[in-house]
Amino acid sequence: MSLAVWGALLGALAGAGLVLAWSRVRVVGRPQLATRVLPYVRDLPQVGRTPALRVASASPTSAAAGVFGPLLRSAADAVERVLGGATSVRRRLERAGLERTVHDFRVEQVVWGLVSFSVSAVVGVLATLRDPGSAVGTLLLCLAALATGVIARDNWLTHQVTTRERRILEEFPTIAELLALSVAAGEGPVAALDRVCRRSGGELSRELGRVLAAVRTGEPVGSAFDRMAATSGLPLVARFAEGIAVAVERGTPLADVLHAQAADVREAGRRELIETAARKEVLMMVPVVFLVLPVTVMFAFWPGVVGLSMTTP
């Protein structure tokens, strides 16, 4: 074959490659239907929405899963087999308000563990360069750092749950009073929920927004609040949702129920504040006993000690 034929073949292959690459770039860069539609139906429940229709997350763990997907998924499955507790993790994810699956959370645990492993590995390599005999200790340190990172993500999830529930308790009296005022003004439960969700912001408002979205899609009000009571990890919020569900189903005065619920939460907050102050009272004595009292004693007795040392021959 002549050089012209080889040149033509190579040119054809290069052109075909460029065409394929350009067509793929156009397909990847084209916005998906879910990306264009879901922002306008964001408040609808996740019923029947497959993972392919979810909006891609911009979190670092999602990006890492997209690049190193098979390895991370295998590692996440291994963590699930070792730790277990998928039901508890799913429950805490719901209570923390995180729209993630248990597998996504396991991937995050793997990423946290790998980051901790990498940091400890860098420190260990630097220590090994100075002392070559510490390679075994460095390996054990890296493995311990890997396990620590995995467990730290689980503990952080528990912290996220606690923080969110504390915010919900702080917002609850105000939200309940607003609902009571709206209902007392003559609005129905759905209209009152709509008004409160539009006028407020916070974790409890988002929970009520999910209830409102479920009601708008045809679910009964009592059933939506029953589901909120079942998924809530706070007894006060569960009683609040159950009280609204009973009031709607049986026709009892809803405003009185909401006022009573808000008063109960405020009373519980006062009791918790008093209990916290009682527990902190012992800690407040620590600086008094170990700092203020020794200084006072020293100021009282030091002049006498100095005087005795000056008068003693």
UniProtKB/TrEMBL annotation:
<feature type="transmembrane region" description="Helical">
    <location>
        <begin position="110"/>
        <end position="129"/>
    </location>
</feature>
<keyword id="KW-1003">Cell membrane</keyword>
<feature type="domain" description="Type II secretion system protein GspF">
    <location>
        <begin position="176"/>
        <end position="299"/>
    </location>
</feature>
<keyword id="KW-0472">Membrane</keyword>
<dbReference type="Pfam" id="PF00482">
    <property type="entry name" value="T2SSF"/>
</dbReference>
<feature type="transmembrane region" description="Helical">
    <location>
        <begin position="136"/>
        <end position="152"/>
    </location>
</feature>
<keyword id="KW-1133">Transmembrane helix</keyword>
<feature type="transmembrane region" description="Helical">
    <location>
        <begin position="282"/>
        <end position="302"/>
    </location>
</feature>
<dbReference type="InterPro" id="IPR018076">
    <property type="entry name" value="T2SS_GspF_dom"/>
</dbReference>
<keyword id="KW-0812">Transmembrane</keyword>
<protein>
    <submittedName>
        <fullName>Type II secretion system F family protein</fullName>
    </submittedName>
</protein>
